[in-house]
Amino acid sequence: MTTVTKVFLVGAGPGDPELLTVKAHRLLQNADVVVYDRLVSAEIMALIPAGTMRISVGKQPKSHPIPQHEINRLLVRLAKAGHNVVRLKGGDPFVFGRGSEEALELVASGVAFEVVPGITSASACATAVGMPLTHRGMATGVRYLTGHCREDSELDFDWQGLTDPATTLVIYMGMANMAEIAAKLIAHGADPKLPAAAINNGSTPAQRHIISTLDSLAADAKAAVFIGPVLFVIGQVVTLRALLGATPDQVQNQAQDNEQPNAAVGS
After folding, report:
1. Catalytic pick from 16, 37, 92, 178?
2. Regarding the domain with residue range 7-116, which homologous superfamily does it belong to in the CATH classification?
3. What is the CATH number of domain 121-244?
């Protein structure tokens, strides 16, 4: 009789293999099968032992070669066949990762599961370029927003609620709809010159970013010709990047400037 095993829904984090959790690494070493997404980095995939079966179920915008319901059933079949299964997802499985949908299918099918959190892109990408998501006097909260809706339906958010100036707004998967999102935020009272940033491939060697304002963010991001995932951060905390994202040489130079006596004193 075949023993049904547990499925591990594992967050791979933002791409940097050193940001993978110890538990996630251990599970990858012991898996029979790894079912993985498009956004899992090549460096993390390289950590999987050579003899492990790998099944790609990656999706791209408006291209879902393996629909979600088929992924759900695949996990059930693999577990009931007795395999040790790791479902490997970029970022965190429960932050816009559809991990809860897979978990519900496993519950309905009587398959045990465990979720292993990963560092989500919001914190990883913002940190990588030197932006906190909250800061006393600038932002007392942060909201995560997906930049597209199910089956590419119309964006329907609480736009008024999203314009709170004391809240940092982080937009995942928003490249295609950023112009519309910005326009609706501005129409509902957001400052057009609110600081904003777009971060591409955050935490990886291919990382790039731009600093902009809400009214120019979509055009500036398009002009940057980003390749790969892009995260948008909107709020006053973006201004801290100039200080917290400085190189060691820049920090040292700034410290030396601060130590210089004021030339106007005694004149």
Report:
1. 37
2. Tetrapyrrole methylase, N-terminal domain (3.40.1010.10)
3. 3.30.950.10
